[in-house]
Amino acid sequence: MTLFRAIGLMSGTSMDGVDVALLDTDGEKRLDFGPTGFLPYSEQDRELLRAALAEAARLTDRAARPGAVGAAERLVTERHAEAVEAFLRAESLDPASVDILGFHGQTVLHRPQSRLTVQIGDAPALAERLGVDVAYDFRAADVAAGGEGAPLVPAYHRALVAASGIEGPVAVINIGGVGNVTFVDGDAEPLAFDTGPGNALIDDLMLARTGSPVDRDGATAAEGRVDEAILQSMLLHPYFQKRPPKSLDRNDFSFRVTDELSLRDAAATLTAFTAASLALAFSQTPSAPRRAIVCGGGAHNPTLMRALADRLPCPVATAAEVGWKGDAIEAQAFAFLAVRVLKGLPLTFPGTTGAPAPTKGGEIAAAQRGRRAIGRGSR
What we know:
13 strands, Nucleotidyltransferase, domain 5, alpha/beta, about 375 residues, single chain, about 35% helix
């Protein structure tokens, strides 16, 4: 069995920083976990990323990089390079020992209904700086084929559940800026879709009213009261009646519906909205899962976790409680997907994105260095 050494990188819609993870894998079933790392964005970095999100809403050409979008692309590339360099130093790793980097970049626009998805980040520049080949642009082929282009992580979720020996069916829930779920049942093709807002609305509320972009430990929401009328009105959004596969842009919902509420009640209502939208998702899965495993930033919010335990039709655990590195799962996933790009394996499936067939994707930016045989043998 040939394994490849990959480093996966992820900068998600929460815009908190760059996650890094090392994984030795065959891109199918074998997962040998390595160390992980994180490089946080500064507040100035996040301000530029938010400006890029606002400007990107007007894009019609996925290659265009006007104004703040171009500046943010340079920033994203620089921060990812710094994150990898710091990780290699910390772990005493030689770049020549790494076969491939999985570089998702930063999503600034996702409109699959218009066959448009935009992730910023200069992969050739990253490959040249680091001296390692870079797999990137994971979503475009799926969107071009008529798929949603998201979620991308389900192939890895399936491998992770299998490697962990967890009996299915299992729901793997990721709560970043957007929430999504993967329904895993043995070797069957996974079913996956975005469920609704994750942390994005709560973060946006806190930033607008307090200047801090997070409700730390869900403390503000824990002191508030859910406005049931506003919650029910939010749950009438047509997205929740749409059948999967389906996906969202971070800005498809707004926290402004809670403007008339106190900060505590607004945070409580938006937290309940995330939990309730995830509960609605289980009306669209083949059956109730045996358990739900929550990863991403939402797993660190006790108030949200209590709301999920109250609303979901199965026991709920955090990724850490089942032995996974929950904050690193998406970075691990892009290491896994990068190896699948190398091997020409599909990244997406009809049940995960709605593509008409299992769809290959991704591009590879080759580092300017002497070519070598890649793959690790049977490590």
